[in-house]
Amino acid sequence: MAASAPSSSGNEPDPNSTNLRPPGSSYDAWCGVAHGCSRKLGMKICGFLQKNNNLEEKISSFKERSSKDLLDNSDRDSRFRRTETDFSNLFARDLLPAKNGEEPTMQFLLEVVDILTNYVRKTFDRSTKVLDFHHPHQLLEGMEGFNLELSDQPESLEQILVDCRDTLKYGVRTGHPRFFNQLSTGLDIIGLSGEWLTSTANTNMFTYEIAPVFVLMEQLTLKKMREIIGWPDGEGDGIFSPGGAISNMYSVMIARYKFFPEVKTKGMTAAPRLVLFTSEHVSLIQHSFPQQNRLHIQSHGVCLQGCVPMFVNATAGSTVYGAFDPIHEIADICEKYNMWLHVDGAWGGGLLMSRKHRHKLCGVERANSVTWNPHKMMGVPLQCSAILVRERGVLSGCNSMCAGYLFQPDKQYDVSYDTGDKAIQCGRHVDIFKFWLMWKAKGTIGFEQHIDKCLDLSHYLYTKIKGRKGYQMVFDGEPQHTNVCFWYLPPGIRDMPDGQEKREKLHKVAPKIKALMMESGTTMVGYQPQGDKVNFFRMVISNPAATRSDIDFLTDEIERLGQDL
Amino acid sequence: MAASAPSSSGNEPDPNSTNLRPPGSSYDAWCGVAHGCSRKLGMKICGFLQKNNNLEEKISSFKERSSKDLLDNSDRDSRFRRTETDFSNLFARDLLPAKNGEEPTMQFLLEVVDILTNYVRKTFDRSTKVLDFHHPHQLLEGMEGFNLELSDQPESLEQILVDCRDTLKYGVRTGHPRFFNQLSTGLDIIGLSGEWLTSTANTNMFTYEIAPVFVLMEQLTLKKMREIIGWPDGEGDGIFSPGGAISNMYSVMIARYKFFPEVKTKGMTAAPRLVLFTSEHVSLIQHSFPQQNRLHIQSHGVCLQGCVPMFVNATAGSTVYGAFDPIHEIADICEKYNMWLHVDGAWGGGLLMSRKHRHKLCGVERANSVTWNPHKMMGVPLQCSAILVRERGVLSGCNSMCAGYLFQPDKQYDVSYDTGDKAIQCGRHVDIFKFWLMWKAKGTIGFEQHIDKCLDLSHYLYTKIKGRKGYQMVFDGEPQHTNVCFWYLPPGIRDMPDGQEKREKLHKVAPKIKALMMESGTTMVGYQPQGDKVNFFRMVISNPAATRSDIDFLTDEIERLGQDL
């Protein structure tokens, strides 16, 4: 037996647990007793003991520092030089796993955390700018002390810390209460903690063997999501993927496999020419299917000779308008013609968490597959997207390779928990933990409150600008999601007669206001043209930090910056 | 103008910078002077001033605490109760952006960091176990205080902290010096810091507008990688993707687009039946092409009637054996028959950083595209994979949709920096920062040293066990990569005559030893069968924490656990 193998005797402290003091302390004795109690009670006692345990440690550490501080004033500088780390002579090679690397590693990580917590505080501070805009050439030329070029020789850890500060300084605060530019906004503190832990664990969702806890969390969370969709007992299948486009790609692949399984081995020649129907305003399905074989919903019924209609994508929350397709009506057609029904709820799926708004996805339980991105409306940090499938087995049927060098059926645990054969990836990032932790911390009702609040805010914006001078709505009626699409007409354009000249002028307004916004750094909102509609603002609200005052700020800012255009 | 818009007057402190003191302090005055100096000097002065600035702050904060501590001993408990946060009555809703949420947010994040830094310390401590194995049903039934189920109601932050501790406790320490189970191992402290920052920034690689710094870092890093591949002036294109399988999928898509661009709009009917050649032992290319249309390299020359050979995948570092295909010879064939040459260097690409080992990829500069995963051999945290393309423009030609609602050509900056139209994804996670930061911190030579060290270690293992009693190598000769594949024959099997019985017994040895290893938690190494070869161990070394003593530990452990099988 190797001399350095840890002992497995039961009386030794568990080397995997943190914050335990040496055996024999009152903490350990009491914790032993606590573990004999019922689970809930035992846990509470242990939590209490552990807290007080930490507390005592902190007290003594402070005591030490205090006495040094007050009793030995003359020596302060040298003492601080000793505890304060000089990073200018330290390099990556001095950190763990280097010999004696523990102390510099801890000091370095704490410095990084200091930078990050400062950033978090500023993110929520409305007197901080959303961004400090610079053009690409400016950043490439190098700002003071910030040089993006990579070199052969290492930089000191001091420079690395400067680089971290600068990276944040010249970036965009997507969690700022006045950042409205994307479908994914906000900085959830629990989600952030979850990501920090995920990157510290740095594992892979491939097998239970190397990600036991995360694999189970994924399984339970997917089941919960399927229950919320309305599939009986939450039965079915699913997986987290790197984003909505890839989740949608999964849906096309499994539908094709379901109808024409030989495609897996023989390629597309094993199937007739397949047709996919999708609504006009959808982005995420585009990459999975050639343009010509995509038909828009309003033209269904059209028959292409020799083609087989196979797949309908119903959009639940379109990117620009936030529109929801009528799922029940589409499901009727799919049943009649035996087509796969996919619901792309990348953006709108979150509304399923709200008793008030989930009716917008009415009929979703009839779908064969659903894309749902918690990283959008639910405020989970990017990336977090799920593809959910009603029928069990088709996901691994479609993607499995049963490669012996990837999965070993003769392992000691139940290998049905290995997820890799369902995925198109080998290494799969752990996207589940932050989401699971947020769900624990907020509860289902917490997500519901967040979603209801965002929809309330967009209702507030809609009613505020609907009849307001200078504003014109892009589509009629109350928005279904938080997307509020509008033109702002500066005074100089407002009274122009309708026509090409006005259109051309109006087309330039949103880009100009957006550019001024970014240069002043006060807020960010998206704009785009759509079909024959000239550039308009698309306001979306998924940011949990936003309030009515921020909505007011946005319209004030648009009016201020657009005044003289 | 909105009352709350921050002033943009030049004399005010920059609200985006951290750690600045109020104006008028000597720090600011001096920093102003420093900014007038040359870039390098100014930066150094500023760094020095900023450090001392922090130091002064820390001194006064300690002063405050110290005097309270010593001068008011009787009140200590109540004071500690005030600074010590009781998380049992706090919930996610009490954190930022909640009113008065700043203090609990900071306290909570610091508690999380305390858990994480403890975990990091233990990870590198050889007296800590690699894992604390439990079966799926055990974790699902719930360990003490650790319940994976999600509920409608929120849990307290105290419980959330317990959940974080338990998640790590029951997980696998992939950075442990004795974790050899995957191609991705290790816990790089700079990479970890980079991931923490990335998740704090929580943005998306889609446009320059929302990820200015990261987009430029990606561009510069890809150029550097292309230079290292050997493409003239580092010209070409590329993108970071969620993993090697998706990078390889990109290569197949762009090759198909290059030869048959109409596939993009008309689908596979616009192309003849395409054939792809790949080496036998490759995993990552599998999902992009139907099985029947994949031919193994050794059978090239075979002609399938009506098929067009289009694409050859040369593997640079196969998953199990770490074998490198002869790229020059394959490139000759590709040139002769006008086929796309892709080099899958997901695992072996890192060797390009080593002057000693890069000859194994000799000819890689003749490839049309290269997959290279820094998250494997280079120790970058998962996920970090690049697809590099020699010809500029073909990546966006293949994937662009030019959707007005995604990209606005009338933005104020040079929109050629927007990356989204190259990608098959919309939301794309920031995978670049940790890699860029590691490169800064280690330099090219740091990666080289890491790679040379890992290959030295595998050489050490190979020479150690090659002639050793009880060991048998799976393939002849020195391994090309760090993959060392071997059988361990317990004493009871060693002297059996060759034949089916011995094969059957030997087939069960590796799974049994692996199961015992996991149960004792001391180390982890992979095994698998391959073709007609029964289960063997595949040792791979990418872990920067591993030393010769850990290699010795592994063989000792295999012998200890396999002794009586």
UniProtKB/TrEMBL annotation, chains A, B:
Q: Which cofactor does it need?
A: pyridoxal 5'-phosphate
Gene3D superfamilies per the record? Answer: 3.90.1150.170, Type I PLP-dependent aspartate aminotransferase-like (Major domain) (3.40.640.10)
Q: Name one GO molecular function term.
A: pyridoxal phosphate binding
Which of UniProt's keywords are assigned here? Decarboxylase, Lyase, Neurotransmitter biosynthesis, Phosphoprotein, Pyridoxal phosphate
Ranges of Polar residues composition bias in the record: 1-20
Name the family: Belongs to the group II decarboxylase family.
The record's listing under CDD domains reads: DOPA_deC_like (cd06450)
Subunit details for this protein?
Answer: Homodimer.
Q: Name one Pfam family in it.
A: Pyridoxal_deC
Q: Please provide, in alphabetical order, the Gene Ontology terms of the cellular component aspect for this entry.
A: cytoplasm; presynaptic active zone
Gene Ontology BP term (one): gamma-aminobutyric acid biosynthetic process
Organism, as annotated: Oncorhynchus tshawytscha (Chinook salmon)
The protein's job, in short, is: Catalyzes the synthesis of the inhibitory neurotransmitter gamma-aminobutyric acid (GABA) with pyridoxal 5'-phosphate as cofactor.
What's the Enzyme Commission number for this chain? Answer: 4.1.1.15
The gene for this chain is GAD1
The keyword Phosphoprotein is annotated on this UniProt entry: yes
Q: Where in the sequence is N6-(pyridoxal phosphate)lysine found?
A: K376
SUPFAM superfamilies named among the record's database cross-references: PLP-dependent transferases
Task: Specify the domain of life of the species encoding this protein.
Answer: Eukaryota
Q: Which reaction does it catalyse?
A: L-glutamate + H(+) = 4-aminobutanoate + CO2
Task: Provide the taxonomic classification.
Answer: Eukaryota, Metazoa, Chordata, Craniata, Vertebrata
Task: Provide the protein name.
Answer: Glutamate decarboxylase 1
Renumbered to this chain, region (Disordered) spans 1-21
